[in-house]
Specification:
Elements: H1 39-50, H2 57-71, H3 73-83, E1 86-92, H4 94-102, E2 107-117, H5 123-129, E3 130-140, H6 143-148
Parallel strand pairs: 1-2, 2-3
Organism: Methylobacterium gregans
InterPro entries: Arc_rbn_hlx_hlx (IPR013321), RHH_8 (IPR041088), Ribbon_hlx_hlx (IPR010985)
Protein name: CopG family transcriptional regulator
Length: 154
């Protein structure tokens, strides 16, 4: 016979599912989005999850998105080349911006992925050095820098 505690709830999750055992999520690893689905589409997703085809709704959505990205890979490849977009992670630090200003130029930055403006970049420096910023994905920047670049974001 099992001796179970009666003074607290019993956690039946596997060890990996417990919050204290999960790997920390780093900022930039994922971005939360909200979608609206009709009840029939949502029911189909739940049925596939219940049948074990997908681990959960998020797994289904991530897989569906990856499949669509792969399906349209040629269109994406051509667009990235045509737009001169940097693919992946683009770090923008104080030294980059000061160097551009020192050369008398302003930056037109285009990123598909994550653009990360370093915390030591001031709003004034960002405004002076960045002519335009187009981010297809996520932008990490302080609220003050975001506000300073609001009219330059595309």
């Amino acid at each position: 016979m099992l001796d179970l505690p009666t003074d607290r709830p019993i956690d039946l999750r596997p060890d990996a599912a417990r919050p204290e055992n999960r790997a920390p999520v780093r900022i930039g690893d994922s971005e939360k989005i909200t979608i609206n689905l009709g009840p029939i589409d949502l029911g189909h997703v739940d049925l596939l999850v219940a049948e074990g085809v997908y681990a959960n709704r998020s797994d289904f959505i991530r897989t569906a998105i990856r499949n669509q990205i792969e399906r349209h890979a040629e269109v994406t490849r051509q667009s990235v080349a045509r737009r001169s977009v940097e693919l992946g992670l683009r770090r923008i630090d104080r030294a980059d911006l000061e160097a551009a200003l020192g050369e008398g130029r302003r930056l037109d930055i285009r990123v598909l992925g994550l653009a990360s403006i370093a915390p030591d970049v001031t709003p004034d420096l960002a405004r002076a050095a960045i002519a335009s910023l187009e981010v297809l994905g996520s932008l990490q920047a302080s609220p003050a820098v975001r506000a300073a670049l609001a009219d330059r974001l595309r």
